[in-house]
Design a protein that fits this description.
255 residues, alpha/beta, 6-stranded mixed beta sheet, two-stranded antiparallel sheet, 8 helices, 31% helix
Length: 255
């Protein structure tokens, strides 16, 4: 560590002269104070995730750990408000987005496509790590320039319980020649992915993959996605797959 200190001459004359003195601080000599970054609890989120990755835990391990520790189970419903849906663990989103970007590398993806809501968090992180734009469908028709087209599709068979719910997409940002990667936070019944795929089709774009942070296998969304996208199995990825939620216990699919 380098510290700037005034030389004796500078102190006498109050001049601007500074000299460099070098000190070495050992972590074992740190005072046992609450403010010490190496001893404070709870550990900073970014530091904790970096440490766990160094210890060999994968992004899916980190996500599963957060579900176990901070997920709330109400009946057969898993609520992840503590780190995705309401309060957001931004570093966890970055880690998961990076892993999704890695899994879909080599597909010449031009844009990430997502929906309004918490799916934007991993979608933004994935697009950032892929260095491509993120486009998200809107629940209100966007204002358009002259000659533009607004594509619309019904959102059905999803966790959204509103009737007559539609998503909209502008022709300004997605069109023929685009190769799209759909990213969402949770795959449950598959309605959101089906709706986004319909919008992409109307725009003349091609969906080359779909990625999710969490898949609830027991809700059957994978079959809907597979029949909609007609892609090889490896083009539909979920970081964490849940086989069932019963009696307050989350049963993960081992990968």
């Amino acid at each position: 560590t380098q510290l700037l200190t005034r030389s004796p001459a500078a102190r006498r004359s109050d001049g601007p002269r500074l000299t460099l003195s070098r000190t070495v601080a050992m972590t074992t000599d740190l005072p046992d104070l609450p403010t010490s970054p190496l001893r404070s609890k709870p550990t900073d989120m970014k530091f904790e995730h970096a440490r766990l990755l160094i210890q060999g835990k994968t992004p899916q391990d980190l996500l599963a750990d957060r579900i176990r520790s901070d997920g709330a189970i109400i009946g057969s419903t898993l609520k992840v408000n503590a780190f995705i849906n309401h309060q957001v663990d931004c570093h966890l989103m970055s880690v998961c987005g990076h892993e999704l970007a890695r899994r879909f590398r080599g597909l010449e993806v031009t844009k990430v496509l997502s929906c309004p809501g918490s799916g934007l968090m991993p979608a933004q992180a994935c697009a950032l790590h892929m260095s491509i734009p993120l486009v998200f469908a809107t629940d209100m028709p966007p204002l358009m320039r002259d000659g533009g087209i607004v594509y619309s599709a019904d959102l059905q068979n999803s966790s959204h319980q509103r009737e007559n719910y539609k998503l909209h997409l502008s022709s300004e940002f997605i069109g023929p020649g685009d190769r799209l990667l759909i990213i969402d936070d949770v795959l449950s019944r598959g309605g959101v992915t089906k709706c986004l795929a319909e919008l992409a089709s109307q725009a003349g774009a091609t969906v080359v993959g779909a990625g999710f942070m969490i898949e609830k296998e027991f809700e059957g969304g994978r079959k809907v996605v597979d029949s909609t996208l007609q892609l090889p199995a490896q083009r539909v990825q979920a970081l964490v797959r849940i086989r069932s939620i019963e009696h307050g216990i989350v049963d993960f699919v081992e990968t």
